[in-house]
Design goal:
It is a single chain. With about 375 residues, the chain is mainly alpha-helical. It has one domain. A three-stranded antiparallel sheet has the order 1-2-3. Helix 5 runs antiparallel to helix 14. The longest helix has about 35 residues. The radius of gyration is 21 Å and the shape is globular. The two termini are about 25 Å apart.
């Protein structure tokens, strides 16, 4: 009896998948950084802290958080404003998105992903199947605008797209008409010239230009993509072998341990290695989708699918930019890329999903 309850408390298949991805990531980071002890320790400690949170996730009930949507929304804004506090706010990679914690730099938008998703899910939970009039739709569309504005101010275009993906998935699940979503996307597409001209910063426009001219190495960002694609192509079917990649061993590609970790994988483990990781991510997202369908309530479904949409975009964006199919952004590959703040955030997300799973009181398989 107790054994059956324990099995229901944790989704062991999900835990196995993220553990395998972490091991793959730590090996690739070791190769990409020449065994940089500080990075390896930060990554490992972040994962261990996250696993602790997962195994303690059954203590609380996620449904309690539904009552604090206003507090969570304010916390989201506060997190994004922390980067402007003198002494702790820090700018790097062209964006003011970090705070200095002493032992590590923390990207506050990572934590804001959690607080925003929890708050927005509660907001939409009260409007389930009522998003059919403008009086109901407009507040739901305005809700994320202050968050998106603060992200653009940093500027963090990758973050804007991540939060937008959370918003769109939650709106769809909450019952917003597909035609309205389609029309909104059309309007957005038509307004891209205005966004490009008047909203994007210079370095963001350069990245868009680089994406539209992939063969021109003179554009900032194209050098990274060209090097990344060359490395992946040179890996062939089985790869060159661990610690034998040129981009990791000779420093031909900047930030390989984070943004371009998939290129390290492709060069050292080839097509087979990339296929294994992509399959693992497919199983990972499938498992989360299954959990969302069996959630105890609609709030749990919204939270889980919101996180799933966010993680799906991050996986798609990171892999896509390494092979030239997406513009270069600072979006990391979950569990695999180096980054203490991103690892902690992703593990906290899994802890919340595990809590939703444990409260569903049902066992189910693929």
């Amino acid at each position: 009896m107790d054994n059956n309850l324990n099995k229901k408390k944790y989704d062991w298949s999900l835990l196995l998948i993220i553990s395998i991805l972490f091991v793959i990531g730590i090996v690739l980071i070791a190769s990409a950084t020449q065994f940089d002890k500080k990075r390896l320790i930060i990554q490992s400690v972040s994962f261990a802290m996250g696993m602790t949170a997962i195994f303690m996730s059954g203590v609380l009930d996620y449904r309690i958080l539904k009552r604090y949507d206003t507090h969570l929304y304010i916390a989201t804004i506060a997190l994004l404003l922390l980067v402007y506090v003198p002494g702790i706010g820090k700018a790097q990679f062209g964006a003011r998105s970090w705070i200095n914690l002493g032992f590590m730099d923390f990207q506050t938008s990572e934590a804001a992903k959690i607080t925003f998703t929890l708050a927005y899910a509660s907001f939409l939970d009260r409007r389930k199947n009522r998003l059919d009039t403008m009086s109901e739709i407009l507040p739901a569309l305005v809700y994320p605008v202050p968050i998106l504005f603060l992200l653009l101010k940093q500027p963090d275009l990758g973050g804007v797209i991540v939060f937008t993906s959370i918003t769109l998935v939650c709106l769809f699940v909450a019952g917003l008409n597909l035609r309205f979503i389609f029309n909104s996307l059309v309007i957005f597409a038509l307004s891209t010239p205005i966004i490009y001209k008047f909203i994007l910063r210079d370095h963001q426009r350069v990245r868009i230009d680089a994406f539209l001219n992939p063969g021109d190495p003179s554009y900032e960002g194209n050098f990274q993509v060209i090097q990344s694609m060359t490395a992946i192509g040179s890996g062939g079917f089985f790869g060159k072998g661990l610690f034998n990649g040129t981009i990791s061993q000779y420093g031909f590609l900047p930030v390989t341990e984070s943004d371009f970790i998939f290129a390290v994988l492709g060069e050292e483990f080839g097509f087979v290695g990339m296929a294994v990781v992509i399959i693992l991510f497919f199983l990972f997202l499938s498992r989360i989708y299954s959990i969302s369908k069996h959630a105890k309530d609609f709030y749990g479904t919204l939270v889980t699918t919101g996180f799933m949409g966010m993680l799906f975009y991050q996986i798609l964006q990171n892999i896509g930019m390494t092979i030239g199919l997406m513009p270069v952004t600072g979006v990391t590959l979950p569990f695999v890329s180096y980054g203490g703040s991103s690892m902690l955030t992703t593990m906290m997300i899994i802890a919340l999903i595990m809590n939703i799973y444990s409260k569903s009181h049902s066992s189910f398989a693929y």
